Amino acid sequence: MKVFPNYNVNDVSIKELYETEKAIFGFLSDGKMVTPNEYFAVHNNKIFDILSGIFYLSWVTVPIFLTIYFLYTKQKEAIHLPIAFLLVNLIGFAMYYSYPAAPPWYVAQYGFEFIKNTPGNPAGLSRFDDALGINLFHSMYQKSSNVFAAMPSLHSAYPVVSLYFALKKKLLRISVVIGLTAIGIWFFAVYSSHHYILDVVCGILCALVGLTVYQILNNKQQLFRKMIDGLSKLVFVK
């Protein structure tokens, strides 16, 4: 996205997405109509600030640990799960180019003007860094490839994929943990001003579409199943 930015393909949605979010999820606070992001930008606390960082980091640790579990127990889901993630990512990136969108923090900082090459911003996650006296999210978002990729929230999509495979294998305790993690990620994506609720909903739908495509391929495409079997033999070689 650095080499070929999505805003060179389509116009970036800034005001449109903000106003749609406000129209659907906005509410009165101190006599003013605000979005949930605007409310949390003013009404936040240190405990939630720390939790926001913990949950936001779990989007990558949860699927990694689940894949390691499948590898350790020699289950084909160790192959299926990453392929499902690939499909979800491909759908998500297709949407990034179809509908470039600015995150809530961009509107708070720059308004509705499109500014090319805008640097990344940790937004509300900076409070996590401040609370712990570290520079984790500041350094991460300095390397952001493109800030106009708020819709869909792939952070919100990933735990759905993990939850699907955990439920599929009837890992009830793990499923409960992943389910709670998913709820936390969805909430703190909004709390930290990185995503609108609409982005989160779109991310969840993106995961469901990706999983549906995966199921169709797995159930009806013989070539796909042969590829999975071939990869399984390579991974689980005796």
UniProtKB/TrEMBL annotation:
It is a multi-pass membrane protein. It holds the Pfam family PAP2_3. InterPro entries: Aur1/Ipt1, IPC_Synthase-Related. Keywords: Membrane, Transmembrane, Transmembrane helix. Residues 44-211 form the Inositolphosphotransferase Aur1/Ipt1 domain. Signal peptide: none annotated. The chain crosses the membrane at residues 50-72, 79-99, 147-167, 174-191, 197-217. The keyword Membrane applies. This is Inositol phosphorylceramide synthase. It comes from Chryseobacterium muglaense.
